[in-house]
Write a structure and sequence with these properties.
Strand 56 (about 625-630) and strand 57 form a beta hairpin. It contains 11 helices and 67 strands. The two termini are about 30 Å apart. The strands form 17 sheets. Strands 54-60-59-56-57 form a 5-stranded mixed sheet, with no helix packed on it. A 5-stranded mixed sheet has the order 62-64-65-67-66, covered by helices on one side. The chain is an alpha+beta fold.
Length: about 950
């Protein structure tokens, strides 16, 4: 089994190298490959990776490319499926709206039958109530109906109380809260359930060791200060999903809320009624809706920090990077330091000067800037320590430290304060209202609306620019000065570079990583690459935060932190790289060209995402009609929204994007074709793939041949062993026959009856010849077996005269010369009937031997009117009984060996016959032997 899985995995691995499937960033499966379900009720994934969807339009199975309607393939007319459930042994069950239940076996739907008319549920089954116990399936509907199934049959249906329904939901809580909640409901549950406000309905919930939330209809149960509370709500929770440290909660008329640490991080989907949330094995999120069909989101890679327990968004006012860690200032003048794992806050300090801004002065210190004061704070061993607090009698805008002097920008100019002497030394540029200060290259730079000044180490002042300054910031290698004319001047130790940004923007902050300059603006994030060109590589971030005002941006390690009006976002770089688009702006007056012509674009091998801007297109009617696109001639056709097209997961090779103003893509219609030629990695080279495929094929063939040889070798050895065992057992039967026969001959000789002895000896010699002939073969014809059987019974009649009679009846449709059976199979059981049953009765016994056929089996019934073995006196027949017992034991061993060697088995059954007075009247032995 394991090797088969390895083969399948290797085949998929090879095929995946050639896959060119490209899908939009966020996908809707409406009308995708005949998937026409708009009402989705349940989503599951099996152990092979297939996605199953229960909907009002049927039961669908998705392999990543095609949806199959399994219900229609099985000829089911009622297509409304509501639930999917995997039992512990991996069996998939599905339930329809009316509670009709099916078991799925290799895509075949097996209906659970009922001996009575099917009891239709008053409401749909609730998924949280499904349970399996061995071969039994049980679930409860929202209408208080309990169903129990076994052996594909409905064995129980009954109405249950609301309490029973309600307590099923407690099983959704899989943490320490389950016990507490159970005790709480035992005390308060009756009053809650019987409240006029309570309305029974869909159930969903999540839990961990710190919190839980359970929704039943309009009732919400939750924890607060380690206590359980409840409330009734108009906006019910429709579905929940836990992924790692995140929780997704769908609220009616609100959307899907993203939670982390009990705080809302974002709203992911709005304006739709969500019925189910499901995470696949890759943490891709599947969303079932009540009207918009099936939606899919790749993953959750964005975190928004909300450190205070008040859960108020936008409480973070400033961030800086100190010592390669992020320090956060909250609106309540509290600073915190985020640890390197980006999961918790280490240092924390409450400030008393109503600080609104924090400024880095070194890798271990910072300045907290108030309206009229400055606090110098050191960070030692992950603790904030206030070194000095300085007050001024004028409003201050900025501050910096250089050579043990504190420089403060104010309406009076630059105030110089000696940190050693604790006094004001001087005022620089006293005739200017300075708004920006920065220290770079051991120099002080100051800026305002009148220009940029440099104060060198000798306290000499030089005016560097007359342009109005919008923002100024620095790193170790560069000084960034943003002018209000939309120019950014980048100073370095060797040269300067001026960059002009298109369209007027308001810059809030500039920071730099190894290869990118991040510009935080009121219109979103702008990024300049290492070639000093404006890039759209990080447009994914703007889409996530809806292009809102960005206050600051820092890249620390592998995480990009972005602060905007809604809070602090954390973007793992792998998420940014995964969805980083390369923007192409198509400018043409005639976008719809003939189908044969195409725009060819060569794509870099590292590119994952393309972003097409189509907004500059002109049309003959001067109004842009709706556009549609499809990729690589797929059946799936998507609309282009807002004149923008996002294509994700671009693989190597040639891909074709077709754009049309007709959603049906009629033949000979005019299209805009875009060919994407993406170079591949070395392992995507065709020759490498051929070599790899050949090696894997040779390996698979070698393993398969070797395995087949081993199986054949084992089968030969096993067949040889079984054949020898069969021969040994068959030879053991010969002494059994001979012993019984010689015992009878001896009986006549002793009584001096020569004629009877002669007859007996003649029949005995014939029987011996049959025994020797039949011992050499595995099977004999039924005619040969009957001939030997009649001789044996006649010998027993000669010995036990007037003790019994017998008859053999053969069905007319049986050809005794064609049917073959195992030799010496029937005689031991007739021997048992004579010696154990008939000889223990005072009246004459009868033995009836019947042969008939049934379902490719030869059925032999041996019926006698003797006593049961348990009722007879065995005191005088110990030796004979031991002999007879050994005969039947040998037959049973032969049958066991035969059954191990053959697919079609031999069956033996015993039955006691009773008369109308319930008295024992005989015995019946049935032997079922497969025909040929």
């Amino acid at each position: 089994m394991l090797k088969n899985k390895i083969y399948i995995y290797l085949i998929f691995l090879i095929l995946s190298v050639h896959s060119l499937a490209q899908k939009p960033l966020v996908r809707s499966f409406h009308n995708f490959n005949n998937f026409d379900a708009s009402h989705i009720y349940d989503i599951e994934q099996d152990d092979k990776g297939f996605i199953w969807i229960a909907s009002e339009s049927g039961l669908f199975k998705f392999d990543g490319n095609i949806f199959r309607n399994i219900a229609k393939e099985n000829g089911i007319s009622n297509l409304k499926f509501s639930n999917l459930y995997f039992s512990e042994n991996g069996t998939l069950w599905t339930t329809q709206i009316d509670a009709r239940t099916w078991r799925i076996d290799h895509d075949i739907l097996i209906l659970q039958k009922s001996n009575k008319p099917w009891p239709v549920a008053s409401m749909i089954p609730m998924k949280s109530s499904y349970r399996t116990n061995k071969d039994t399936l049980t679930f409860v509907s929202y209408g208080q109906d309990l169903y129990r199934f076994a052996n594909d049959t409905l064995i129980e249906h009954k109405k249950i109380s609301v309490d029973h329904v309600f307590f099923n939901f407690i099983r959704k809580i899989n943490s320490k809260w389950q016990k507490k909640l159970g005790l709480y409901l035992q005390v308060n549950g009756h009053n809650i359930i019987n409240s006029d406000k309570f309305k029974l309905g869909y159930a969903s919930g999540y839990s961990n060791d710190s919190s839980f939330l359970l929704n039943v209809g309009n009732l919400q149960l939750f924890n607060k200060n380690n206590e359980i509370h409840y409330q009734f709500s108009d906006k019910t929770i429709q579905a929940t999903l836990a992924i790692d440290e995140y929780y997704l909660i769908s609220k009616q008329e609100v959307g899907i809320l993203l939670y982390k640490n009990n705080s809302i991080q974002d709203t992911l989907v709005k304006g739709t009624i969500v019925t189910d949330l499901f995470a696949d094995k890759n943490n891709g999120i599947w969303i079932g809706t009540l009207s918009d069909g099936l939606l899919y989101m790749p993953s959750l890679d964005v975190v928004k920090y909300s450190p205070r327990k008040t859960n108020n968004l936008g409480q973070i006012t400033d961030i800086i990077e100190v010592g390669n860690q992020l320090t956060i200032l909250e609106k309540h003048s509290e600073i915190r330091q985020l640890d390197k794992s980006n999961k918790r806050f280490n240092a924390k300090l409450k400030l008393l000067n109503n600080s609104k801004r924090i400024i880095k002065t070194s890798n271990s210190s910072l300045i907290a800037l108030g309206d009229y004061s400055v606090m110098i704070i050191d960070i030692i061993n992950n603790k904030f320590i206030i070194r000095k607090s300085i007050s001024f009698n004028t409003p201050i805008y900025h501050a910096a430290i250089l050579k043990k002097q504190l420089f403060v920008a104010s309406i009076q100019g630059i105030i110089s304060y000696s940190l050693d002497c604790n006094k004001i030394n001087d005022t620089i540029l006293s005739d200017q209202r300075i708004t920006s200060l920065n220290v770079w290259d051991n120099k002080l730079f100051a800026g305002n609306n009148n220009g940029l000044w440099e104060v060198n180490s000798n306290d000499k002042i030089f005016k560097r620019s007359k342009n109005s300054i919008a923002h100024m910031n620095s790193c170790e290698t560069n000084l960034f000065v943003a002018y209000k004319n939309n120019n950014i001047e980048i100073f370095s130790l060797t040269s300067n570079k001026v960059i002009n940004l298109p369209n007027p923007i308001d810059i809030n902050h500039i920071s730099k990583s190894d290869s990118n300059i991040f510009i935080s603006t009121k219109e979103g994030l702008k990024v300049i690459d290492k070639s000093f060109n404006l890039t759209s590589s990080f447009d994914f971030i703007n889409r996530v935060i809806n292009n809102t005002k960005i206050i600051k941006t820092y890249l620390l390690g592998n995480t990009l932190f972005v602060l905007n009006n809604n809070g602090l976002y954390s973007f793992p770089l792998h998420a940014v790289n995964k969805y980083t688009p390369y923007t192409i702006q198509l400018q043409t007056n005639n976008p719809i060209k003939t189908k044969d012509s195409a725009i060819t674009l060569t794509i870099d091998k590292d590119l994952k995402h393309l972003h097409f801007i189509l907004s500059t297109f002109n049309y003959e009617n001067n109004l842009p009609p709706p556009l549609y696109y499809k990729i690589n001639n797929e059946k799936y056709i998507s609309p282009i929204k807002n004149n923008e097209l996002n294509i994700a997961q671009i693989n190597s090779g040639i891909s074709l994007i077709e754009i049309s103003d007709n959603k049906n893509f009629i033949k000979n219609q005019r299209y805009l074709n875009i060919k994407l030629a993406k170079t591949g990695y070395w392992y995507q080279n065709m020759y490498y793939q051929i070599i790899l495929f050949s090696l894997i094929s040779i390996l698979i063939i070698f393993i398969t041949i070797n395995r087949v040889k081993n199986i054949k070798r084992k089968n030969i050895l096993e067949n040889t062993r079984i054949s020898k065992m069969q021969t040994v057992l068959q030879q053991q039967m010969n002494p059994h026959f001979i012993f019984n026969s010689l015992t009878s001959i001896n009986h006549y000789v002793i009584q001096n009856k020569p004629l009877e002895s002669s007859k007996y000896l003649t029949k005995f010699s014939t029987l011996i010849r049959k025994i020797l002939d039949n011992s050499a073969v595995q099977k004999v014809t039924l005619a040969e077996e009957l001939e030997a059987l009649e001789i044996y019974i006649d010998l027993e009649l000669l010995r036990f005269k007037d003790k019994f009679s017998y008859s053999i009846k053969i069905a007319p449709n049986i050809n005794t010369n064609k049917i073959k059976i195992v030799p010496f199979l029937i005689q031991p059981f007739i021997d048992r009937a004579i010696r154990e049953h008939i000889l223990n009765r005072s009246i004459k016994g009868t033995i009836l031997i019947q042969f008939q056929t049934s379902d490719k089996y030869l059925v032999c019934n041996i019926i006698d009117n003797g006593l049961v073995i348990d009722n007879k006196d065995t005191s005088n027949n110990n030796y004979l009984n031991k002999t007879v017992k050994s005969g039947t034991q040998i037959v049973e061993q032969r049958i066991d060996v035969y059954n191990k060697q053959n697919r079609n088995k031999i069956f033996i059954s015993n039955e006691i016959i009773k008369n109308h007075k319930n008295e024992v009247s005989g015995n019946k032995i049935t032997i079922k032997h497969p025909i040929n």
